[in-house]
Amino acid sequence: MTVRVRFAPSPTGMLHIGNARAALINWLFAKKHKGVFMLRQDDTDLERSEERFAKAIIEDLAWLGLTHQEFAKQSDRFDQYKQAMQRLIDAGRLYPCYESAEELDFKRKRQLTKGQPPIYDRAALDLTSEQKTDFEKQGLKPHWRFKLEPGVIAWDDLVRGHVEFHGERLSDPVLVREDGAYLYTITSVVDDLDFKITHILRGEDHVTNTAVQIQLFAALNNGKPVDIQFGHTTLLMDADGKGLSKRLGSLSLAQMRENGIEPMAINSLIARLGTSLPVEPVLDLETLAENFNLSTFSRTPPRFDEQELALLNHKLFHIMPYEMVKDRLKNIDATIWEVIRNNLQTLKDVEAFETICHGEIKGTIAAEDKDYIKTALELLPPAPWSADTWSLWTNALKEKTGRKGRDLYKPLRQTLTAMDHGPEMKDLLPIIGYERVKKRLG
């Protein structure tokens, strides 16, 4: 059996870090098992779905490296949903209901007042043909509910273990609205059947959906259970323990990309959040896939912290070889990259080091350091320079001026780099070169 999974976002907003985690889990699972990763756009909500979001989803996933082998749009498949709807009607599993939203809300409140579970009372099943005709004459359009069968609905969840529901304790779900719009519950099942999905990996907010859909799968499969495995992971919380929203701009993938976050920093973090594996920078998805295992996922909701992501982004540069990044650099060669990479928060920081190494800068010289810098110029060693030049120079300055520690080193760094911190000066000095150092000291 070939493993087939799908990521099915709705193009009604920008992808955020929680969406990315769901996509990555599916991608890594498929990669680990040499399977197929499918991207399906759940765009049946024609009013809220937008082409700009559809394009952004594809761009964001490509940026993360989560390539798909198959693609589908639900808006192209309305005929399939219509056929499935008719099959359920013919089998007596889909029935029309005429209650308004206000009437249903009143029923739920009355049930809660009586201490009863707020599930649909199936009053529509008792309607006569004459009553239905009368509703139609009044201009009422029905919504359609799937009739759940009583009994245990169980599955062995790949993350949560054994899960059970009872059909008689669940409310018959609406599959088709009054306006004829097909809802997620039916479109997802039809697609998963048609595209032969073998594993459905999604957030724990879909657990009840799964119980309903297991019966729906069977109803659309000639009454036979479908051999699909389910796994429900806990949802990401933000740093304060609140849920993430796909419209929360600061956590959108597009904003993170704009802020200079590396895609593999994101992948490295969200692949391990909520698992027993350590969070550490990893350079490629293949390595993450090798160690991926759903059994490592915890039932405790993990928290996503932007500061942790920023730190991981910084650490990623520590292990990133020049060959991996050279096409994104202008005037930085392998030697300079080795010197500066440990000091990068994002790749945007490279620009400042380009200026330090090749450009014109004017460092700050405190009044009390002016004579010291003048002496430094006088004692500047002649070219050519090596990694030993810095220590030779500062030792001579120490002997001449009596300075030591910060008083010895900091004024030199500020004058030569206009920074208070940065790469080791012994490595940076030969790159800046004799002529630029001389000019900056003067």
Task: Give a written overview of the molecule.
The protein contains 19 helices and 10 strands. With 442 residues, it is mainly α. The protein folds into 4 domains: 126 residues, HUPs (Rossmann fold), CATH 3.40.50.620; 97 residues, Glutamyl-tRNA Synthetase, domain 3; 78 residues, Glutamyl-tRNA Synthetase, domain 2 (Orthogonal Bundle), CATH 1.10.1160.10; 108 residues, Arc Repressor Mutant, subunit A. The strands form 4 sheets. It has a 3-stranded parallel β-sheet with strand order 1-2-3. Helix 9 crosses helix 11. The termini are far apart.
Instruction: Indicate the low-confidence ranges by residue numbers.
Output: none
- The multimeric state of the shown protein is single chain
Q: At the third CATH level, what is the topology name of the largest domain? A: Rossmann fold
Q: Count the DSSP helices.
A: 19
Count all strands and give the number.
Answer: 10
Rg over CA atoms:
31 Å
Structural class: mainly alpha
CATH superfamily of the largest domain: HUPs
Q: In what range is the share of β-strand residues?
A: 5-15%
Net shape: elongated
Largest pleated sheet: 3 strands, parallel
Total of domains: 4
| N-to-C order of helices and strands | EHEHEHEHHEEEEHEHEHHHHHHHHHHHH
The strand order across the widest sheet is 1-2-3
Distance between the termini: 73 Å
